[in-house]
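seq:
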Amino acid sequence: MYFPTSAARQLLTVPALPDVSPEPVLCFEASPRKSLFCLLTKSSLTVWRVRPSAPLAHISRSETSLIEHGDNTAVTWSPDGSRIVIQTTMSYLILVTVDYVPDASVYQPSHMGASVQRNFLPGPGEGIPLQLLSLALEGVICAEGQVLSVSPRKNYIVFSTSSPPAVQRIPWPVYDESEIEEQTARRSLMGHDTWILSDHELPWLLDPDVTVTKILHSISGVETWITSDGRAYFVRLQESRHSEDFSELDETDKISTPNQANGLSRPSTDSSVSQPHYHWEGTCIHNFEVPRWVPKQRSSDDSSGRLSSTYIEPRRAVAIAVNARFSFIAVGTQSGSIEFTSFPTQDGPTPTPKVVEVPNPYDRSSGSVNAMEWSSDGYVLAVGWTHGWAIFSVGGRCLASGFGVEDHIDGDRFQDTFMHAVENLFWAPGNFELVVLTPSGIKPDGQVFVLPFAKSATTCQHSPDNTRYAFLQMDDRALVYRGAEQPDMSVINPESDVWQHIKIPESYLATNWPIKYSALSSDGRLIAIAGRRGLVHYSSTSGRWKIFSNIAQEQAFTVKGGLLWFHHVLIVAVEISKSYQIRLYSRDMELSNQNVLHREVLMSPVVILSLVDNSLLVYTSDNMLNHYLIVPTADTIKLHLCGSITFDGIIASPSAVRALSWMIPNAQKRLGDPVDDLAVATVLMVVGGQLVLLRPRKSGTQEVNYDMQIFAERIEFCWIHLRGIGALENSLWGYDGQNMRVWLNALAIESSGSADEPSSVKESVSIPLDFYPLSVLMDKGIIIGAEHEAATRMNLPFVMFRHATSSHLFLHHVLRYHLESGQVKEAVTLAKHYQNLVYFAHALEILLHTVVESESFVGSEDPSTSALPESGTLTAVIEFLDHFDASLDVVVGCARKTEMTRWKRLFSIVGNPHALFETCLASKRLKTAGSYLLVLHNLEQLDENNKDAVRLLNCAVKAQDWQLCRELLRFLHSIDDTGKALRHALSETSLVVQKGDTVP
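struct:
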């Protein structure tokens, strides 16, 4: 899904300014929109642009300020990006304003001629001028107590302190007289409040004798606290009802100062008694049991947050990353482990955390977790440890990692220090780059690295066509897997270079980076790309891109909701001037507003598009599913609205829908009116990480209701096969981070229709994979995927990354399911679709070998009882193999790769190996007969004169198969060191006479 590629870029973090002494970077922080980030040293602050990576502004504190307020320790941005808050060692908060100067650039390019300018074209995202901004000191806030964590909000600043342990809130300062009335209203709602951490004010704390070490507030609005005892909480600031919360408090308590601790919140002295009061509500999301032998002490007395000087809780939370798109949390612990936990429900049980496996093949220490961040699409988690880094998928699979380097390197020249330690990290816009900060080393410069990634196009748009081919996006190109069009052996050969690299026009990416959507046509020949504004499309047949010739038309709209190919017509969901449309463009015409084939105006923005045959499914943010028919006419092509249906009460969050499809009953397809399709269709959705099937059911009033079936949780990759190969029609394939789970006939509406069926459905087949799947090649019987590789060289100071193609046969897994269910006929029907593949016999051999080994394992536990069911499966497998010419080769191939202790069971069902040998001789399958000869020898079924070997040798001589003759003679020589068997065989044949030469 996400794979590091090429090599990391190293940024020189010391500004090229006079009188600026080099200082190590303490930390960095990305702006809310991730287009900027700031670097903090103990005395200065520098704001950088992410793309192109360049410093825009720098501010240094004076010596007087450092003495009075202390050195810098941490930095955070305000939600609107207009302020930066610096935390100091002496518990001061320094406010820095960020002023954006419109129509002004930081750097002035030198004047170059047209011929020279052609050699210096801007790269992706480098066509927009570097906007001028200035940093100015706004003021200093003195906080009572030691400041532990700061979290700026839209109208106020929230921070936690120790001595006393509390959470405080203060409003932003305001200076413009025109904002006095607004600020007065704001202060009446959000004044200076203090909440002391105690049983009275925060009764939901499991241990109130703590401090809040980290306050984290995500863009989605989810707020989390990490306390000094290592627990984590979801929290929310709620308005208290005055009559209930304060009826028992006396008048003195109501007007108490912020320094007192007698109420739910401490309003400032200038607040009126009637103003609303607020309190915190919380739920523990990460808990653990402390051993009884650990003495209890006040955690707030220890600024490090450790429970005891002699005991460190390994599950103590040190970092949290909230994934609102998939509704779960990642918790990083003191010991370096990662735990995934679902969002808690109000009435449900406490979710059980899932510990993610961190690969460490060389048993190197990872250290504590330093930083974690989810990509903006929610699919991957980047983690930085004290001694390494890794990327995990939402299902918990490690996609890439680095805990040092494997090969010997030149330590003095090696620059990629992020392979050994990471202090902090964040994803750049578009998630094509990971920006990491490493600890300061010998050199105070070069602590920031930018690691490029290639990612699956399904992370942006999970459409059926994007899952039909392995389709990757990079920062400046698209990668399409072409192995499906190659010979069979090229597909399974990992060394085959079957990826087509398609460069995106620089003129488009320079101003419209990053890529937001990518779409591939059903035949894989047409590609459409949409960035920040506009779109472009490409044909691999002509090798040409088409772009808007009118830049104003391109910049007037942005793609929102996705884009799809219907033959040569591109269907696009756009937003233009706060209105929403579906547009149709033709590949054969130039891109312009005048060449739009059709415009369909919508009332709400599109969440996702999906195409099934000639039906366009449009799901919008108002929780409506619209069904359009694509109607070609003599001159153009149009969309015809057939119906709409709401999913209110079924889908709680429309923005969480990731994939969409449906299936129409066969009777409706043949005889029904398309207007009624929506009322009878079974709808399949991926909502967050849940794979959901919605079956329609009409009530007495003819109103359509839906029965929901949840197939699986945390599904990352989903593929739907509606038609084609036998028993695989209507099959559903989902990847959960560990296994490819297959539901055969899952979308067959006629098969089941009870209203009270269970809410979850177990998969038919589970296929374990040791790589990340990207596509299912149904006609090849193969799952295609990729895995990352890292390489170092002694003569290179950096690490090189690439992704390697991997494949896995799925045919034997599906066949085994049918045979274990006694469905031999269905298995034969399915296998006949693949019998012409080069590796078909190999797949059957894997099937037989798997069943033989599993039967042997079960039988070894209790041969009298457990072996009988499995022998039934083995009998079904042998019956199945008899339908194919390769059965004799499959049996002997499996036998030669299996321990001899399994042969008795195998041949008791297959038949006497000597009879199989005779069958091979009769059918002139001499090489197969030679393999059976080895089996007969091991079973001691050859006579003293080796008549069977002599007969086979005579047949080989007659067929002039000299290679087989050579192997048979070597076999006879190996079983009898005296040479008697070899001389006897030669005397029985005319081999020496015919060749006129000695025996080799």
